[in-house]
Write a structure and sequence with these properties.
8 strands; eight-stranded mixed sheet; single chain; alpha+beta; 2,3-Dihydroxybiphenyl 1,2-Dioxygenase, domain 1
């Protein structure tokens, strides 16, 4: 019998924002809400969002903001098998991942994109 993956919520939330809303979105989180900006991954823009990190990404191919979530797993290969067996839609073409990054993209039934990655591979 193959190993079953375990899943947990990751620390990272990505907000994909169209260019015409990008600067005002950053200003909202930085200037209006006063959230602490994460600068260690410049030019990426992120904010401390409680126990999580909120990353604001400028994306020319979206017309409205989308929220993407991170899910961590103990076994990426088992996770892929388990999610496929459950009928979860995989959408790796949505955004390239770095070479050697142990992860893949899926979509929830409500069309929320999730990065599924090994718990040691998170991008915070």
């Amino acid at each position: 019998m193959s190993r079953k993956a375990t899943f947990a919520a990751g620390r990272n939330i990505a907000m994909k924002v169209p260019p015409h809303l990008y600067e005002t979105t950053i200003q909202f989180y930085r200037d209006v809400l006063g959230l602490k900006e994460i600068t260690r991954h410049a030019p990426s823009v992120g904010f401390e969002f409680g126990a999580n990190n909120l990353w604001i990404d400028r994306v020319v191919t979206v017309s409205q903001a989308e929220v993407w979530l991170e899910v961590v797993t103990n076994d990426v290969e088992a996770a892929a098998r388990d999610l496929e067996a459950a009928g979860v839609v995989r959408c790796d073409e949505i955004e390239p991942l770095g070479q050697g990054f142990q992860a893949f993209w899926v979509s929830s039934p409500a069309s929320i994109v999730h990065l599924v990655c090994k718990d040691t591979e998170t991008w915070d």
